[in-house]
Input
Amino acid sequence: MEEKTIFKRIIDKEIPSNIVYEDELCLAFHDVSPQAPVHVLVIPKTTKLRSLDDVTEDDVQLIGHIFAVIREVARQLGIADGGYRVVSNCGEHACQTVPHLHFHLIGGRDFTWPPG
Output
C-alpha cells in the first residue's frame, strides 16, 4: 500500500490545516509557506490524480468544479477584483513536490511575467 501524501492526511484530518472551503469533491486551505499575502491550495479529495498529467476526459466535471471553487475562494478572500494567479506544477522539473493534483491560488500583491 502506498504511503499517504501530506494532502491525503490533510483531507483525512490527520494533519490540521486552515481550511477556507470544503465540499464532497475538494478542499481549499492556506499554504503553510505562503508566497504572497494570499496563498491557498485547492485540491481534489480523490487520490487518483497525482498531477495534471493524470487528468482525463472523465475528470472534466471535477476540474471545472475546482476552478469554480477557486473563483469563489478568490472572492471570499478579497483578491478577485485586484487579480490573482492560479498555478499547478506538473512533475519534478516544474517543482511539484507533492504527488497529488493541486492548484495554488495566489494574490494580494503584484506579480511579474514571466513567473520564472
User: Anything to note?
Assistant: The two ends are 36 Å apart (CA to CA).
